[in-house]
Write a structure and sequence with these properties.
By secondary structure, the chain is mainly alpha-helical. It has helices at residues 21-29, 45-62, 65-68, 75-97; strands at 11-14, 33-36. A two-stranded parallel sheet has the order 1-2.
Amino acid sequence: MRAAPRRRPEKLHGDKAYDRRHCREYLLRYHIVARIARIGVESSERLGRHHWVIERTEAWFNRFRRLRVRDERLVTIHEAFVPLAASLILLGYLQRAF
């Protein structure tokens, strides 16, 4: 079974580490809208709220070793663990909330 084809994002938020000419040219070539903080000009605080959500979500999934270190040979097995991990994360959240 083949995996679904990859899709490019429409928009990208990046911190000052991505303020490089080759990064901007790559995004421009593939028609990806970039919001990258510029070195010495902008503060990356405005990007923080988007960046934090991504980092937090990755940290939640990294608690599951099988997702952090991919040992499976088949993509379908790895993809089966993602919704399982999401369900366990949501279950833990609901248990703390109620």
